[in-house]
Automatic annotation (TrEMBL):
SUPFAM superfamilies: Radical SAM enzymes. Residues 5-247 form the Radical SAM core domain. This is Radical SAM core domain-containing protein. Keywords: Iron, Iron-sulfur, Metal-binding, S-adenosyl-L-methionine. NCBIfam families: mod_HExxH, SAM_SPASM_FxsB. InterPro entries: AKG_HExxH (IPR026337), Aldolase_TIM (IPR013785), rSAM (IPR007197), rSAM_sf (IPR058240), rSAM_SPASM_FxsB (IPR026335), Sulphatase_maturase_rSAM (IPR023867). It holds the Pfam family Radical_SAM. GO terms for molecular function: iron-sulfur cluster binding; metal ion binding; oxidoreductase activity.
């Protein structure tokens, strides 16, 4: 095996191998592999116990933070509620202490009743249902053995799940191009699922799909895509989101290595079920849970073959312009006798047309940043790095004005030379948040500050250099380094060995540190006053010590309870700027559009509040950077909107910014209510409702661009499941009353009913 072992993060357990429907397109019963005939009908409990242990050992060995387990079949509901309850309990007991377990079940829905729903609620099992669209579409394939329709019983099952949104995972629809795409989509969308998965019917080059035209499947999906786009990208459609944002959680698109394994009812490990369509025995590994651990399975040649990324594709695929999105399509769909899987997908023409169409339709600029996690309110270090690259480009473009407005040509030449020879040192200075704030807000009055920037870059490069600088309030500030108090006659500054050699009192920047994470505590930069709130003056040492203690505690809380936000904060937060405390004693904080990477905060008494303010304001930082790259809304819309967190009406951008920030606020109280239920339950109930309402206002404004609709759909994707989480009725009532009172006060204060 070449390269490191790729651990499994997705597990499919075949808890029952028979089915109560006779779908003629089923890959388990109707395709090449017929191994189901020799397997037990139901997975014995000893196999369940052993499987749970194997997965737990795998999680511990690879320090996995999250795994997904899908209870599957056949039809898993044939196992009955008692057996499924025991299975779920076993999995929860083995894995909940070790990682986050996303436990799901996929069903045809015909047996789903209240007994099953109670079991799934007890063990937190989310349920996905197969439905191929409207009645005519569904009944083309999904029938009982005697020819009866399954449609009405499936719809009843879905209605049960709609009443229990916390248990509803979504709908899966297998495409038949003979079905009306509009009727299929409308039927599925009107059921308001959390997600729709459109699946290409399993086929190979030996048994190709029905194809009335060369790109019939692309054309069918494009029609659905246009309807979905017109609906504001609601509900989420995983195939479309994967094409727009980058493949996520699906093996049918993308180059990510396969991390899924199947456990059959007899305990045999198998590869992805879709391989059953290729040839008899195609998914088999010859391994089982009783004798083999999961690392052994991960080294199986069949598993490894699906983890080679671009190198595992045929020459035709490697040369394709959409290969990074397509990834060669589903592995099983590449099979041809004689050449095995070293072929393009049998759906290759459709994938090329569909991906190209969607990219062009939503504007290729969406691919300058990965939208999916950012739109949902999160984002990892790579996402933030992409935003930071764009911000650096903007800053570079802006500072050139300083030379034209009276900045020193000597300073400009020094900066250009340093950029050619020590680009990282120049980058370190130009990405300081208040460089852009100076370039946008103050360059006309302070063009000589260009020299301060150049000298700071020289210091980082370790180069001895001198340039004219600007003295402000008796000091020369070197961004990212510190401040030199100087006499009145100083107008030039020399650095050597990373520090000024000109006489004066040198005070380096202070930093806040928590573990291996550190940010500047910026109380000296002359251009930090860009928030509309007064900055604190230079802090005495005891106040810095207070900040240090609070920051350390706040960061520990973020890492332990809000770890999903930590990578973005690590990558993007570089400065905390202290504000003067509010006279009212209210906690205050801010972010500025032209100060990427910085947040301004008045130190709160509670470190948990500091954690909240860091999360909240960094959301604004991210959104501002996104808006610098993408046009999410029509800027000609001058309407004002009610924003539940403000006492004034807000323009569309303000509402968008606030809603995005309050995803993190809602999430904070969603978690924090378990520590502080008296306050947290009300806060969570209030902000989840108000944020969801603001997201819908954005979606229905008629002013979001196509990219903006997709972004808002991502925000909705995060907030909607939280609406189904149980909260004490009294807390919900208090939150609703607070929301009503706030809106009424805003309407009175603004003399209007928005």
């Amino acid at each position: 095996m070449d390269g490191p072992l790729v651990p499994f993060r997705q597990f499919v357990l075949k808890v029952h191998s028979r089915c109560d429907l006779a779908c003629d397109h089923c890959y388990v019963y109707e395709h090449a592999d017929q191994s189901w005939r020799t397997r037990p009908k139901a997975m014995p409990h000893e196999i369940v116990v052993r499987t749970a242990r194997r997965i737990a050992d795998h999680v511990q060995a690879h320090a996995l933070s999250r795994v997904t387990i899908v209870l599957h079949g056949g039809e898993p509901l044939l196992a009955g509620p008692e057996r499924l309850g025991r299975t779920a309990a076993e999995l929860r007991a083995a894995l909940d202490p070790l990682c986050e377990l996303d436990l799901r079940l996929h069903t045809n829905g015909v047996l789903l009743d209240d007994r099953f729903m109670d079991v799934f609620a007890e063990h937190r099992v989310k349920v996905g249902v197969s439905l191929d669209g409207d009645r005519a579409a569904n009944d083309r394939h999904r029938l009982f053995a005697d020819g009866r329709s399954s449609f009405d019983r499936v719809i009843r099952a879905i209605e049960r799940l709609r009443r229990r949104r916390d248990l509803f995972a979504g709908l899966l629809c297998t495409i038949d191009v003979r079905n009306d795409p509009a009727a299929v989509y409308r039927t599925l969308a009107e059921l308001d699922p959390p997600q729709i998965d459109f699946l290409l019917p399993h086929a190979t080059w030996d048994t190709p799909p029905l194809r009335p035209t060369p790109t019939a499947y692309a054309d069918w999906l494009i029609e659905v895509f246009e309807l979905w786009l017109a609906d504001g990208c609601r509900p989420p459609v995983r195939m479309f989101r994967s094409i727009i944002d980058g493949p996520s959680g699906t093996e049918s698109l993308g180059l990510q290595p396969a991390d899924l394994v199947v456990v059959e009812t007899d305990g045999a490990y198998e590869q992805a079920d879709s391989l059953k369509t290729a040839y008899p025995g195609a998914p088999a590994t010859g391994l089982d849970v009783m004798r083999h651990d999961l690392d052994t399975v991960a080294r199986h040649t069949g598993i490894v073959a699906r983890q080679r990324g671009l190198d595992g594709l045929c020459e035709t695929c490697r040369a394709c312009p959409v290969v990074k999105t397509c990834g060669g399509g589903l592995y099983a769909h590449r099979f041809r006798s004689g050449t095995g899987f070293a072929n393009p997908s049998v759906y290759s023409p459709d994938l090329l047309k569909l991906i190209t169409y969607i990219r062009e339709r939503v504007d290729m600029r969406t691919h300058t940043i990965p939208l999916h996690d950012l739109a949902r309110g999160f984002g990892d270090a790579d996402d933030i790095a992409r935003l930071a690259e764009a911000q650096e480009s903007i800053s570079r473009g802006l500072i050139g004005r300083a030379a034209d407005l009276g900045g020193s040509a000597e300073a400009w030449d020094l900066l250009v030379t340093l950029d050619q020879r020590h680009r990282d040192a120049v980058r370190r200075v130009l990405t300081h948040p208040y460089i852009r704030a100076w370039a946008v807000n103050a360059v006309d009055a302070h063009p000589r500050y260009l020299g301060n920037i150049a000298v700071a870059a020289a210091a980082h490069a370790g180069v001895e250099a001198e340039a004219p600088v600007e003295v402000i309030d008796g000091a020369v500030h070197l961004p990212t380094l510190g401040t030199l108090r100087v006499g009145p006659d100083i107008d030039r500054l020399r650095v050597r060995g990373g520090e000024p050699v000109t006489e004066g009192e040198w005070r380096p920047l202070r930093r806040l540190t928590a573990g291996d994470f550190s940010v500047v505590l910026e109380d000296a930069d002359p251009f930090r006053d860009c928030y509309g709130l007064p900055p604190a003056p230079s802090l005495p040492d005891d106040e810095v010590a207070r900040w240090q203690r609070a920051f350390d505690d706040a960061w520990k809380l973020i890492e332990s309870d809000f770890s999903r936000y930590a990578p973005a904060l690590r990558a993007g937060l570089s400065v905390v700027m202290p504000l003067e405390p509010a006279a009212s004693g209210k906690d205050i904080s801010a972010a500025a559009r032209h100060a990427f990477g910085a947040v301004a905060i008045a130190l709160p008494a509670d470190p948990a509040v500091l954690a909240l303010l860091l999360l909240h304001e960094f959301q604004h930082v991210k959104m501002g950077a996104v808006l610098d790259i993408l046009d999410l809304y029509d800027e000609s819309d001058e309407r004002l909107f009610y924003a539940p967190w403000r006492n004034d009406l807000r323009p569309l951008e303000g509402l968008l910014q606030g809603a995005y920030a309050h995803i993190a606020v809602t999430d904070f109280w969603r978690v924090r209510r378990y520590v502080d239920p008296e306050r947290g339950d009300v806060q969570f109930a209030r902000w989840r409702s108000d944020t969801a309402a603001a997201v819908e206002t954005l979606a229905e404004s008629g002013s979001m661009t196509q990219i903006g609709k997709i972004f808002v759909a991502g925000m909705r994707e995060t907030i909607t499941p939280w609406l189904a989480e149980p909260v004490p009725p009294e807390a919900v009532a208090i939150a609703a009353r607070q929301a009503r009172e706030h809106r009424a006060a805003v309407e009175r204060g603004n003399g209007t009913r928005p």
